[in-house]
Amino acid sequence: MKVLANDGVSQSGIDALEKAGFEVQTTTVAQDQLVDYINKNEINVLLVRSATKVRTDIIDNCSSLKIIGRGGVGMDNIDVAYAREKGLHVINTPAASSGSVAELVFAHLYGSVRFLHDANRNMPLEGDSKFKNLKKAYASGTELRGKTLGVIGIGRIGQATAKIAIGVGMNVVAFDPFIEEVDIPLEFFDGQSLNFKIKTVSKEEVLKQADFFTLHVPAQKDYVIGKAEIEQMKDGAGLINAARGGVIDEVALVEALESGKLSFAGLDVFENEPNPAIKVLMNNKISLTPHIGAATGEAQDRIGQELADQIISILK
């Protein structure tokens, strides 16, 4: 059995698969050459992250394929229903990267309320000549403790983010059309734990109550946050998106930042990824990362191991 990890896979996943007798290839094959490569090499399992697209051309024309695996949560780059109709197994790792994405959300939050993203741009340029000016410019920081975090989408990653927020001392309000109530367990270093119950409220209530917002929703046709939703937020609110590009109207977002309606945004994903809009990239009120939510060594190890376990269970 041959596995092609076209967007890479952790060494832990490779080791587990090879131990079970699989041949693992980590060659990155160009999208337009995938069908030929899979057929020529008789690939049985195709593993991808977010870069490689698995559409009907691959599903229809690669008879050796038995499994398509996504290292991560969202599978919008795979024609999942069609693949399953054709008898293929489609797997992913919905829990493996929750903690790493949640930590990135708070990296953006902490950095933004203390202007770190902008200070790190300006200190190398002006730190030696305008130190006092910069100190004054960044003197009005905000603490997260005691503030309200609005979580839009309280699935696994939303819950992991809420867990950090509660630990920080924030109030959490959440909206999710599919979930009415969640238990958030906080485990501490010494074995103690506390459980917090969050009951979801309407989207309008979250927009009205929260000081900061974080999105944890799948890709969809319409914006989750557009001009109308931003208008319902508190003046000076902050917005983080480490979910999917296209769930925030970036034109409305930039307008709100320029007008002062929003004080900052943090974006790990973008509408036009992998070519984000220049207006977004150049805005000094936006904290930017290049889609690295799951990019920790720990998360990648968990993803690789979970994929390997599922593949071995299906094919062995």
Automatic annotation (TrEMBL):
User: Is Amino-acid biosynthesis set as a keyword in this record?
Assistant: yes
Coiled-coil residues are none
The record, for InterPro entries, names:
D-2-hydroxyacid_DH, D-isomer_2_OHA_DH_cat_dom, D-isomer_DH_CS1, D-isomer_DH_NAD-bd, NAD(P)-bd_dom_sf
Domain D-isomer specific 2-hydroxyacid dehydrogenase NAD-binding: residue ranges: 109-293
| Keywords attached to this entry | Amino-acid biosynthesis, NAD, Oxidoreductase
Ranges for the D-isomer specific 2-hydroxyacid dehydrogenase catalytic domain? 5-315
Q: Which Pfam families match?
A: 2-Hacid_dh, 2-Hacid_dh_C
Q: Which family does it belong to?
A: Belongs to the D-isomer specific 2-hydroxyacid dehydrogenase family.
Q: Which PANTHER family match?
A: D-ISOMER SPECIFIC 2-HYDROXYACID DEHYDROGENASE FAMILY PROTEIN (AFU_ORTHOLOGUE AFUA_6G10090)
- Name of the molecule in the record: D-2-hydroxyacid dehydrogenase
